[in-house]
Amino acid sequence: MPSTPRDELDHRIGALQHHLRTQQVDAALISQNIDLFYFTGSMQSGTLLVPADGRPVYAVRRVFERARTESALEKVVALESFRQLPDLLRGTAGRTPRRIGLEYDVLPVAVKDRLAAVFGRSSPRTNWTSSGRPEASRR
User: Fold this and answer.
1) Cβ neighbours for 129, distance < 8 A, ≥ 6 positions apart
2) Within a domain: residue 1?
3) What is the pLDDT of residues 3-43, one digit of tens each?
4) Where, by residue number, does the polypeptide cross the bilayer (predicted)?
5) Residues 130 and 24: beta-carbon distance below 8 Å
């Protein structure tokens, strides 16, 4: 049973998507546990891909079945490798995002560098920015 109701997750993600659009950011990648829990209702290892417009995808690296049980999100998929992220994001955003927001306030530099390398192979003109923390004022 999901820990957070679907309508609450939709509200939280909707607020983030509004923030992304006002900042002209095409999508956000969320990977830190507390932010994953806030937006998905689960803290299983993975990345939440949130396009500025469209449905989010929770790509789970570990304990996929538990994430599917805990999260009320519509699309929870298994993630074998970070190399899948560009295609997943393109699929959910409907195009190749040019500006992608990350959790710069808590994201380790090594993770940012790894993402840049993965996206650089498939989307060399990707521009990284802070996704901001619109949820912080709503907690």
Assistant:
1) 23, 25, 99, 100, 101, 102
2) no
3) 799 999 999 999 999 999 999 999 999 999 999 999 999 99
4) none
5) no
Query: Which CATH number does the domain housing residue 130 bear?
Result: 3.40.350.10
Which residues are bridge partners to 72 per DSSP? Answer: none
Round to whole Å and give the CA distance between 3 and 74: 14
**Cα 34 to chain centroid, rounded:** 13
Task: Measure Cα distances from 55 to 17, 49, 58, 81, 117 in Å.
Answer: 10, 9, 10, 21, 25
CA 47 remoteness from chain centre: 5
pTM, two decimals, is: 0.86
